[in-house]
Amino acid sequence: MFRIVEKPVFLDFPPGHHLHCLLCQIPNQIRFAGETDPAAISARKWQRIAGLFDLVGQAQGNLRKLHFMLLPEAVLPLAFVDDALQAAERQLPHNSVCMIGLEHMAVADFHALVERFPADNAELLQSVTEDRRSGDIEGLKVNSALTCIREGDGRCRVFLQAKSHPFAGEETIDARHDLYHGKIFPLWRSQPTGFNFMALICFDYLYRTLYQSNIRQVIDHANQLYFSTRQRLDLLAVLECNPKPEHRVFRDVLHGFYGELLEAAPGVRDCITLFCNSAGSTRESLPLPSTDSFGHSAVVIHKNHKLPTLQLSEFSTDDFAGLPLCRLRFGTASRLYYFNLPVFHETDPRTTRMPLKVHHVYAADAAGGWHSIDPRGTNPAASAPDISDSQGETA
After folding, report:
1. What is the rounded distance in angstroms from the CA atom of residue 257 to the CA atom of residue 264?
2. Which pTM was predicted?
3. Which stretch of DSSP H or E encloses residue 337?
């Protein structure tokens, strides 16, 4: 079911130098049937996203070096997809990537969106077309993500993917209101630098069975890439809208991913995993237990990078309760985190430089913009991760 298709893109990243990422942990208003003014809700959501593009377009300070921009799952309304693409083409720098989750839409609407970009989504277009012909799925909704890549020559390319494993809260007992299960997932191979990256949508990251898991196929594909070309999967982005980002099932996958519990995995050993979740205020409109919380986006790398132990008001570092990895763990507030993606220590094992640095933390201001804040502020330090046995959920 889960099929990885390689997509060559022209991204002239600086060879041997770290890249930069803007991780946008912003609130998300979960949509429900019977809303009193859905157009106004969509407009508010878009205004928040438009402000992010404006910040990037101003290109102040280190933001001029932006390479990756991540937004959470299900955050962009369908009515504003064109506005987002226009903003990306106008304000994203050359050699940059924007990944953003789309609100649920009907299969027909998703099919129409894919048809607008057939050159970059040929396999996905064929898959959705065949699925629509094979059965009555017109009533299904699609949880999807859009990746806009602005290549080195300024050309914008648009890639789409549909979530393959929605969780129970997105579905109902009535099978006619099930969610569509995506089958095609791109792996972008950038040239001339040779940087390879993927995006998954929340539960698509989890183990299902030993032999059929999406993440197992990602590891196997990355290993084949390594043994055939000596290239790795360099970056894996996980877009979430998850009230339990610290759930043990995510920890289990990270343990297998970096601990090589199932097999030796040179293709992902030095992969950087980014978890981009919605901000904690997302839970305010949901009937969730008080113990549940959104937020806690994170950057995870192999233990060989040896991040020092640190605990500030805006972020902390740990090993996720004893795993063979280093984790930079953020808080729950609405924040933009701008940091560098670490390069392999094997490049120079004697280096004394820190492999991962947070350049800026941005907080929202009263006018709807963003301003840089001191991450050492006066707020209490981030709480310890909750490794509970309760069921993980995704909104």
Report:
1. 10
2. 0.92
3. strand 335-341
Rg (CA), the chain: 20
State how far the Cα of 181 lies from the Cα of 80, in Å rounded to an integer: 23
CATH T-level topology, domain 3-27+43-347 = Nitrilase/N-carbamoyl-D-aminoacid amidohydrolase (3.60.110)
**Mean pLDDT across 212-238:** 93
Count CB-CB contacts under 10 A for residue 5. Answer: 15
Amino acid 169: pLDDT: 58
Asked if residue 198 lies in contact with residue 233, where contact means CB atoms within 8 angstroms, the answer is yes
More confident site: 108 or 209: 108
Over the stretch 329-338, which tens digit does the pLDDT of each residue have? 999 999 999 9
Q: Is the pLDDT of residue 22 over 60?
A: yes
For the chain, what percent of residues have pLDDT higher than 90?
A: 63
Helix (H) or strand (E) holding 65: none
Residue 217, H or E segment: helix 214-229
Q: Which two tokens stand for residue 272?
A: 């950087």
Which of 272-276, 290-294, 340-344, 371-375 is predicted least confidently?
290-294
Tell me if the bond preceding 192 is cis, omega within 30° of 0. yes
Domain boundaries, given as residue ranges, for the chain: 3-27+43-347
Instruction: Return d(Cα 98, Cα 80) in angstroms, integer.
Output: 15
Candidate from 111-120, 137-146, 280-289, 345-354 with smallest mean pLDDT: 345-354
Residues facing residue 358 across a β-bridge: 339
382, 329 in Cβ contact below 8 A? yes
Question: At 204, which helix (H) or strand (E)?
Answer: none
Residue 63 has pLDDT above 70, yes or no: yes
Find where tokens 């932006």 sit. Answer: 66
Average pLDDT on 200-219 reads 84
Phi and psi angles of residue 339, each rounded to the nearest 5 degrees, phi first:
-145, 165
- Give the integer Cα–Cα distance in Å for 25 and 295: 7
- Residue pair 131/103 in contact (Cβ under 8 Å)? The answer is no
Q: Is 245 left (phi over 0), alpha (psi -120 to 50) or beta?
A: alpha
